[in-house]
Write a structure and sequence with these properties.
By secondary structure, the chain is mostly helical. The chain has 2 domains: about 210 residues, Growth Hormone, Chain: A; about 210 residues, MFS general substrate transporter like domains (Growth Hormone, Chain: A). The protein has 19 helices and 2 strands. A two-stranded antiparallel ribbon has the order 1-2. Helix 2 runs parallel beside helix 7. The two termini are about 35 Å apart.
Length: about 450
């Protein structure tokens, strides 16, 4: 017997398996287009970093400062989500965002493709494109979270999102350097123009897709509105919604990882004598390792409660970095990276599924984008702490492994803070009273 028969669980939503597949395909197709269009990571960001280093001859400190300034909107990503939850462009809600900001993002890319290339033009172009792009990300995140709650498919959506969103990043690691090399012999202005035009094409595709309204998706989701409230009232309602706190705290711990970035790179290169290409390969192997257990989580999400999957995946993920203590060579580190990815995939998907289930009614975009902001802030500060530990203890990576393992172990007691009602059922079975049983009734309007 599986957890699908959990006592007190609500009935499965009234859509068939074919409709669920169409919903998954639509949302996966969207993120497959949206993700590589991001100006701050992926196919655009990696060649830009090479361009700053190799064509403009900037030192590492200035490249880091460039990333800090262009990434500033990410630290307040929840504001973009709050706009998504409060405003409906053209009366079409998320499709309106895809159409409007897909077009605006494409326009930003085209304008800066035509301007003379300089540090300032690149800085302004990436920063403005990031602002416009975050509205696209907010719309997708809010739509996905709303469907995940209304159709009780948070685990399947979390697994599908992680798999599909990983692919552009892996492609960037594999192709980013090659693209930079292919552009190396071209004039600097043409390099920048090519990069921006790639982004413009991707964003324009999003705008076109936004005009499409597949019935299997939008006939099975409704916008959620209580009595019309002032934005301050919505903020207060969000602040009083207890379930988001343990979910975001767990997300904080999972992404903190002191030492998992810069110190690890220095350890591989200085201690194991890895080349620059080896560091890129390690990241690609590590990222690819997550995909099988993302998929496994998606399969198990229909059979077992999220509570069980949270505990199982966390226990499996706590020792994720320990294999690096036993690698004598770069090749061994690559094998360890693959194993580490496998250990972390199910946990990443489980924590996103938990965030989806924890969102307050009508503020799904705000909550999901708050997790995005937390990721960028926390990972950067975790890297700073890990770098300090690495330097303080004589450039030994062991101290970073210990620190990361302790932080991950703290997730286990944090799981006890999660309201059990939200996680006692598998996908396809709504909790008793629904995900918003403590929030009162809401007005349902077509999406």
């Amino acid at each position: 017997m599986t957890d699908a028969t959990a006592a007190g669980a609500g009935p499965a939503p009234a859509i068939d398996a074919a409709a669920r597949r169409r919903i998954l395909l639509y949302l996966c197709g969207l993120i497959f287009i949206i993700s590589p269009a991001a100006p701050y990571h992926g196919l655009i960001a990696i060649p830009v970093s090479f361009f700053l280093k190799n064509r403009l001859h900037l030192p590492a400190s200035q490249v880091a400062l460039f990333r800090l300034m262009t990434g500033a909107p990410l630290y307040v990503a929840f504001l973009f989500g709050f706009v998504r939850d409060s405003w409906s462009p053209f009366g079409r809600r998320d499709r309106g965002y895809f159409m409007l900001f897909g077009g605006l993002t494409a326009l930003v890319y085209v304008v800066f493709a035509l301007l003379p290339v300089s540090y300032v033009s690149l800085l302004a172009g990436i920063a403005l494109a990031t602002c416009s792009y975050l509205f696209l990300s907010s719309a997708w995140s809010g739509l996905t979270s709303t469907i995940g709650q209304q159709q009780a498919m948070s685990g399947q959506l979390a697994a599908a999102y992680n798999i599909v969103a990983s692919l552009p990043g892996l492609a960037a690691l594999a192709l980013g350097g090659a693209l930079s090399d292919r552009l190396e012999g071209v004039r600097a202005g043409e390099v920048a123009r090519t990069l921006f035009l790639i982004g413009a094409v991707l964003a324009a595709i999003i705008a076109v897709v936004g005009a499409w309204r597949p019935r299997a998706v939008y006939d099975n989701v409704h916008a959620e509105h209580g009595p019309r409230a002032h934005p301050i009232a919505d903020i207060k309602r969000l602040a009083r919604h207890w379930p988001i706190y343990p979910a975001l705290f767990i997300w904080f711990l999972w992404n903190f990882a002191p030492g998992g970035s810069t110190p690890l790179q220095y350890y591989l290169q200085d201690t194991l004598h890895a080349k620059d290409s080896d560091w890129g390969l390690w990241n690609m192997v590590f990222g690819a390792g997550f995909i099988p257990t993302f998929a496994l989580f998606g399969l198990l999400a229909r059979r077992y409660s999220l509570r069980r999957l949270l505990w199982w995946s966390t226990l499996f993920a706590v020792p994720q970095y320990i294999p690096l203590l036993f690698v004598p060579t770069v090749n061994a580190a690559l094998f360890a990276g693959a194993a580490m990815g496998l250990m972390g995939g199910a946990a990443s998907a489980a924590y996103i599924a938990l965030i989806i289930r924890s969102c307050p009614r009508g503020l799904q975009g705000t909550t999901l984008m708050a997790s995005t902001a937390m990721y960028w802030i926390v990972s950067n500060f975790g890297d700073l702490l890990g770098t300090w530990l690495y330097d303080r203890f004589g450039h030994t990576f062991t101290v970073c492994v210990v620190a990361i393992t302790i932080v991950y172990a703290l997730i286990l007691p944090a799981l006890l803070l999660v309201p059990r009602r939200l996680i006692e059922t598998p996908d396809g079975v709504a909790p008793k009273g629904g995900f918003h049983a403590d929030e009162g009734a809401a007005e349902a309007v077509p999406a």
